[in-house]
Input
Amino acid sequence: METPSGSTENRLLPEVETFERQGWRFTAIRHKAILPSTCFCGKNQPVCVYCHYEEQLKIAVLPEMIFFKNSLQIEHHSGARIEFNPLDALREVPSAAISGYCVAATEVWTKARSQCLHGKTATANYDWTFSSSYKGTYPSSEGIDYNSLRIREPIEFYQSFPLYEDELSDHGCSMMDLKCRSMPSGFFVLLRLYLRIDKVVVRVLECRLHWRFASNYGLREYTLKEKSFRDLNVTERAAVMKIDEISSLLEPVVISRERVDLRES
Output
């Protein structure tokens, strides 16, 4: 992903970590910089990163915190490549208005968000919960072998960082983050969107990618877990703000699996 010029305060050097194993190369870029909230284009200068996001995305309002410099690239010597980055993740946010139970909170959100947009009018004609279905930038009945992932192996490479986050004008949280680890046998990526609309719904969308180095293909599994607040039991209510815990408690309502071949990555 090409990144246009950033603002002065975001020119600190990012943390870059690389790792190679059996023909694969991992490059993780981490930075605390958050996408500026306004344009800072200078005369006769390249487009600023804020305007780049505005031009590329079809949503009316961006999340409060976009960690626009964070990314993970996984490349194979054959030329296959998988990348995870905030811009492509936000491309998958639906541009259509949300429906169903979320409508109850939409009017409150619109009023609250309008107060912090410096004169702009916030409209809820898109998914203001930022529920991206992003699976990475790159069908099978074969599922991920979770037993093999439970085998204790030395972790040779590990990364964890956020892609974006929004507090939904104090009505909950929408956050996408990524975790990656590489072991001697293969690598595993977890991309997770956690959404909580207080007193309305909790939703967890997870994309897992498992690749054994001895294999010429990987397995990608996408799950949607969701429950309205009124249907949460006592244990789930206590865990609703603990992302790992609530994810383990909720049953999937949608599961899809794909085989990812090297030539298709």
About this structure: The helical segments are 49-56, 86-91, 103-114, 146-150, 234-239, 243-249. DSSP finds six helices and eleven strands in the chain.
